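hey
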């Protein structure tokens, strides 16, 4: 199947003044588009030619993995940004307060990790198989999907994400990126995990009692809980 560059959910100037239209035009229009085009040409005639993106990310290696993962990571990055005000769901707020103390403490921990991360890569908020929020860092194209974690938010700390606007000033980029965090997107991702705990938590029944209990419950009732 031919992979397609996602439509941005906003105009290229929508993130100004924090991320300029020029940055978006290069980052989305050149880098992100480049990964999509490269992926399409690399998979031609291979076992991955007809496979969906998540399958390729799970099983492919080297250039095919790198380009597929970068397509996924960038899709996730753009969706995680919003210039308009957003807010965490009650459920998300509860988890953030439980696992980080507060929204402010979460943001500061996330940004400190992002500022200190060496080289090119991605900073993630993920939810583990046990339902705990954690911050993870992945180098280059690597992505939590490959490791069985469920991502909720990501920040791109490759230099191409900020060099036009901030030159080498990654902390300045991060301070403004923080103002664009799309809490609705994170809340929606969390809700998807909650509505599909077996697939979402990526755990088999014999490893996690919580999932076994849920399977038992579903089999007894054979209904979708409201
Ligand atoms: Mn990027």
């Amino acid at each position: 199947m031919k992979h397609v560059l996602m439509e941005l959910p906003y105009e290229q100037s929508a993130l100004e003044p924090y991320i300029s239209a020029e940055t978006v035009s290069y980052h989305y229009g050149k880098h992100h588009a480049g990964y999509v085009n490269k992926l399409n040409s690399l998979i031609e005639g291979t076992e991955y030619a007809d496979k969906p993106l998540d399958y390729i990310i799970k099983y492919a290696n080297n250039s095919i993995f790198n380009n597929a993962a970068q397509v996924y990571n960038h899709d996730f990055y753009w969706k995680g940004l919003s210039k308009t005000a957003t807010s965490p769901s009650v459920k998300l707020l509860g988890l953030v307060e439980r696992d980080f103390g507060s929204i402010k403490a979460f943001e500061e921990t996330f940004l400190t990790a992002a500022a200190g991360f060496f080289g090119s890569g991605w900073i993630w908020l993920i939810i583990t198989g046990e339902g705990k929020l954690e911050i993870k860092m992945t180098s280059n194209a690597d992505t939590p999907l490959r490791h069985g974690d469920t991502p909720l938010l990501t920040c791109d700390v490759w230099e191409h994400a900020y060099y036009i606007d901030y030159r080498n000033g990654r902390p300045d980029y991060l301070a403004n990126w923080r103002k664009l965090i799309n809490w609705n997107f994170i809340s929606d991702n969390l809700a998807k995990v909650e509505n599909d705990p077996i697939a979402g938590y990526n755990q088999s029944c014999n490893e996690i009692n919580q999932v076994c209990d849920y399977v038992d419950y579903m089999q007894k009732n054979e209904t979708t809980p409201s």
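The mean pLDDT is 91. Residues 94 and 102 are 9 Å apart (CA to CA).
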